TrEMBL record:
Catalyzes the base-exchange of a guanine (G) residue with the queuine precursor 7-aminomethyl-7-deazaguanine (PreQ1) at position 34 (anticodon wobble position) in tRNAs with GU(N) anticodons (tRNA-Asp, -Asn, -His and -Tyr). Catalysis occurs through a double-displacement mechanism. The nucleophile active site attacks the C1' of nucleotide 34 to detach the guanine base from the RNA, forming a covalent enzyme-RNA intermediate. The proton acceptor active site deprotonates the incoming PreQ1, allowing a nucleophilic attack on the C1' of the ribose to form the product. Substrate binds at D92, S93, G94, G95, Y96, D146, Q194, G221. This is Queuine tRNA-ribosyltransferase. Keywords: Glycosyltransferase, Queuosine biosynthesis, Transferase, tRNA processing. GO terms for biological process: tRNA queuosine(34) biosynthetic process. Its EC number is 2.4.2.29. It comes from the Bacteria. Belongs to the queuine tRNA-ribosyltransferase family. Residues 252-258 are annotated as: RNA binding. Pathway: tRNA modification; tRNA-queuosine biosynthesis. The gene is tgt. It catalyses: 7-aminomethyl-7-carbaguanine + guanosine(34) in tRNA = 7-aminomethyl-7-carbaguanosine(34) in tRNA + guanine. One of its GO terms (cellular component) is cytosol.
Length: 376
């Protein structure tokens, strides 16, 4: 994997680039739809490719390891083969999911012991194990095994947690360097910056991660309940330290406004369950603001989902129809709403990239931020 920085906006820290992987090239800034269990819920891989125009999707080590299990994925020849997705995949290492999902978990220097939320069985993830599991899943970009520091937390807790993540990172790098890809294409390891919302810890963590000279770097421990201002200030500080010639991935972010503001701070990659999760609850992101399609006001509104929408669902289906489907709890409702929201996120970052390249990003971003926050 290698990153080509094509252009940096003169009026902000926004960048446009290309990430070259063995499964194809990704244009940055990019949004990565989340396919936790090997599927972006409710959407076919072909729709992801052709209608959403997704360039890379996320899988999840913690979930895939528990179900369907590594034997099933390895037997298929890796996750790309198993799910029929030929473009790039990134897997998160499980650090965040163990912390947010496992029934019980015990963290020691060695790793994390946890109980499956499916059947109560006990499991153990060490940094080495997390790398081996991601080798078996076969994603193009894999994440270091870290502790996502909870928010809020005391300074000393954040410091101890960050230093353990740094020790775990060294173990991940050693394990990565002493193992090979299993399916014949290369895999890249991204380290993850921690340090909670403490500037001195964030600086120390960003400097430590930068010293590892990885092919890409992630910013973790954010979008965990902290105020947006803290997310932006920590992101700005970390991006000012991370190398400019490597992609920066801000994990778990976020709303359309969070994404545009973070692009302006120098972030290149994003993932968030929000567009797909909101879709399942009837919350649509549109060019004029957010819509709750369950609201009675849409019952006889025969206008398209989004007149400026980029995919066929935006033109073919009306607000009234989707209102009916979601009220009737029809499966098609989730499919239409999810394709719409994901296409909205991909179109947003695609337009941001175009604006960065033609030098109009800053004013466009400020206009968008005003519109996107509106509820209609
Ligand atoms: N709807 C919805 C919705 C649900 C959850 C979220 C928060 C996602 N935030 C988030 N994901 C993360 C993953 C992460 N993975 C790892 N390995 N490490 C992190 O520090 C980390 C931090 C994260 N922060 C945001 C929106």
């Amino acid at each position: 994997m290698h990153f080509e920085l094509k252009h940096t906006d003169p009026h902000s820290k926004a960048r446009a680039g290309l990430i070259h992987t063995d499964h194809g090239t990704i244009e940055t800034p990019i949004f990565m739809p989340v396919g936790t269990q090997g599927t972006v819920k409710g959407v076919h891989q072909q729709e992801l490719r052709d209608d959403v125009e997704a360039q890379i999707i996320l899988g999840n080590t913690f979930h895939l390891y528990l179900r369907p299990g590594l034997d099933v994925i390895e037997g298929a020849g890796g996750l790309h083969q198993f799910i029929g997705w030929e473009r790039p995949i990134l897997t998160d290492s499980g650090g965040y999911q163990v912390y947010s999902l496992a029934t019980s978990r015990k963290i020691t220097e060695e790793g994390v012991r946890f109980q499956s939320h499916h059947d109560g069985s006990y499991h153990f993830f060490s940094p080495e194990r997390a790398i081996d599991i991601q080798r078996t899943i076969g994603a193009d970009i894999i994440m270091a095994f870290d502790e996502c520091t909870p928010y809020p937390c005391e300074y000393n807790y954040a410091k101890r947690s960050m230093h353990m993540t740094h020790r775990w990172l060294k173990r991940c790098i050693t394990q990565m360097d002493s193992t090979e890809p299993k399916y014949g294409y290369s895999q890249a390891l991204f380290p993850i910056v921690q340090g909670s919302v403490y500037p001195d810890l964030r600086k120390e963590s960003a400097e430590f991660i930068a010293e590892q000279h990885a092919v890409g770097n992630a910013i973790g421990g954010l979008s965990v309940g902290e105020p947006d201002e803290d997310m932006y200030s920590m992101t700005d500080l970390v991006c000012s330290i991370l190398p400019t010639d490597k992609p920066r991935y801000l994990m778990g972010v976020g709303t359309p406004v969070n994404i545009l503001e973070s692009i302006a701070l120098g972030v290149d990659m994003f993932d968030c369950v929000m567009p797909s999760r909101n879709a399942r609850h009837g919350m649509l992101f549109t060019s004029e603001g957010t819509i709750n399609i369950k609201n009675h006001k849409w019952r006889m509104d025969y206008s398209p989902l989004d007149p400026n929408g980029t995919t066929y669902v935006d033109q073919v289906y009306t607000k009234a129809y989707l209102h009916h489907l979601i009220k009737a709890k029809e499966n098609l409702a989730i499919q239409i709403a999810t394709i719409h929201n994901l296409a909205f996120y991909l179109a947003l970052v695609k337009e941001a990239r175009r604006r960065i390249l033609d030098g109009t990003f800053r004013t466009w971003k400020d206009e968008q931020v005003k519109k996107l926050g509106r509820r209609i």
